[in-house]
Amino acid sequence: MQINVSWAILIIAGCFEAGFAFCLGKMKEVAGTTAWWLWGAGFIICLIISMVLLAKATHVLPISTAYPVWTGIGAVLTVILGILVFHEPASFARIFFICTLIASVIGLKMVG
């Protein structure tokens, strides 16, 4: 039971990693100090939550599995957000490599 909770915490931490990357992307787009500070605050909040949850998950999960899974979740979600929100290219090669990254994250969970 404890391991399943730790995996759920790790998945949520990965989502917040994508959240702080998204806030960085929005900071690049906005004009004005108020809007910049708003997205900057979102970045800091997401960063703190992500790191705290990652640390919590590693109390049970090995760091050699948890860290790559955390970064993989964040990377995949960041690319998806980039395509959907920031209109970044969705080429075949990009989608292919995101799929291989997802397969690798699943593989790490299965062997971890």
UniProtKB/TrEMBL annotation:
GO terms under cellular component: plasma membrane
Source organism: Candidatus Merdivivens pullistercoris
Subcellular location: Cell membrane
The protein, known as: Guanidinium exporter
Keywords: Cell membrane, Membrane, Transmembrane, Transmembrane helix, Transport
Transmembrane regions: 37-55, 67-86, 92-111
InterPro entries: EmrE-like, Small_drug/metabolite_transptr, Small_multidrug_res
Membership in a protein family: Belongs to the drug/metabolite transporter (DMT) superfamily. Small multidrug resistance (SMR) (TC 2.A.7.1) family. Gdx/SugE subfamily.
Entry membrane topology: Multi-pass membrane protein
Alphabetical list of PANTHER family matching this protein: GUANIDINIUM EXPORTER, SMR FAMILY PROTON-DEPENDENT DRUG EFFLUX TRANSPORTER SUGE
Record GO terms (molecular function): transmembrane transporter activity
